[in-house]
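Dear Dr. L.,

I hope this message finds you well. Following up on our conversation about the binding site, I have prepared a predicted three-dimensional model of the protein together with pyridoxal-5'-phosphate. For your records, I am including the exact sequence and ligand specification that went into the calculation, followed by the structure tokens. Please feel free to forward this to your student if that is useful.
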Amino acid sequence: MSPREAELAERLAAVRARMEDARVAAGRDDTPTLVVVTKFFPGSDVELLTGLGVTDIGESRDQEAAEKVAALARREALTVHFVGQVQSKKAGSVARYADVVHSVDRAKLAQALDRGAERAGRVLDVLVQVGLDTAGERGGVAPADLPGLAATVAGLEHLRLRGVMAVAPREGPPRPAFARLRELAEALRVEHPGATWMSAGMSADLEDAVAEGATHLRVGTAILGTRQSHG
Ligand SMILES: *Cc1c(COP(=O)(O)O)cnc(C)c1O
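The resulting structure of the complex is given below.
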């Protein structure tokens, strides 16, 4: 095992242990999906992670992600999640390689992804990103606008509405924000029973997200380390 593989294996095991402790503490009997966010890190790390049993990776920049995913030896072994902001003009590109888009925050983007998915002959799983901070600085639709945007997504033929995503606000504790997201997710499910996913929790706050019922965690630095200079 190379030093890098040993390092990734150790950090991955530590994150899985944190997830398991949080799951037991929350009395949950389901284990959330771990999306390992590999942005800023090379495809060689993705290959090592795949060998270590990782099934889901996350990316947040279109050009970097497109190149990395195209070069993967075992693309079919992975579900690729796009977790960052998407410019509408990049939607056609993202629709070609992403399996799941976590960050749909406006109707125009949903429509552009739908057209891109149609051209690529694909159907994308989509989460609506909700802004949980009053300033909206971390992105996402205002909670009041979630039902409308979700209805738009649900009405598009090449998108499948799977649920909601959020990033905890910079200020204040994450747990109440994730509790709010859970309420919004539950309310959304009344109209859209298939929207069962809740993407929340990163390296620093994954325990709070597990406690509030997150189905997908997006963890980068706790596994990959801090950003490399070539990012
Ligand atoms: C980078 C990123 C993550 C991972 O964050 P870490 O703190 O490195 O675990 C999760 N979600 C989104 C949207 C990101 O851009």
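In brief: The two ends are 25 Å apart (CA to CA).

With kind regards,
A. P.
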